[in-house]
Write a structure and sequence with these properties.
43% helix, 5 strands, 5-stranded parallel β-sheet, 6 helices, alpha/beta, TIM Barrel, 162 residues
Length: 162
């Protein structure tokens, strides 16, 4: 994890170069220490904001009703954006329900366009309970999947439900 400000110029140059080359999805998180640079690169690119998809993540230390709302507002301020396109709750630990409540409010206010969960695939009971209790359902579920983590249960579940 980078300290705030580390890698700032590298991130700025990389994102600005990527945007100029045609990339339109930027993935960041407070833990990466580059949100200010990313926001500046987006502004300096001259590309309309609505043409760029910005994804970010909240870390468990930012989970909790009220705490997540504050962390999310700080994220927007660091990025110097009015909204982000997607925010992930990074993993199902800590006060996930409090975090989700705050994100539902941000979603309803138009400050985030889509809500996602990440790493919720390790325990189907946790996923099912979460899904049953939230008002705004996750639009995205990110999970690790490769030859050493095939997630066969989820492949079957998703395939059979479609």
């Amino acid at each position: 994890m980078l300290a705030e400000g580390e890698g700032e110029s590298e991130a700025y140059i990389a994102v600005l170069t990527a945007l100029k080359a045609g990339y339109r999805h930027i993935d960041t998180a407070h833990a990466y220490g580059n949100e200010r640079s990313i926001g500046r690169a987006i502004k300096d690119s001259g590309i309309p904001r609505e043409e760029i998809w910005v994804t970010s993540k909240l870390w468990p230390s930012e989970f909790g009703e009220g705490k997540t709302a504050e962390a999310f507002e700080k994220m927007l301020k660091r990025l110097d954006l009015d909204y982000v396109d997607l925010v992930y709750v990074h993993q199902p630990v800590g006060d996930v329900m409090g975090a989700w409540k705050d994100l539902e409010n941000a979603y309803k206010e138009g400050k985030v366009k889509a809500l996602g969960i990440s790493n919720f695939d390790k325990d189907e009971k946790v996923f099912d309970e979460f899904f049953k209790t939230v008002e705004v359902k996750p639009q995205i579920m990110q999970m690790e999947c490769h030859p050493y983590a095939q997630r066969e249960y989820w492949q079957k579940r998703i395939y059979l439900s479609s």
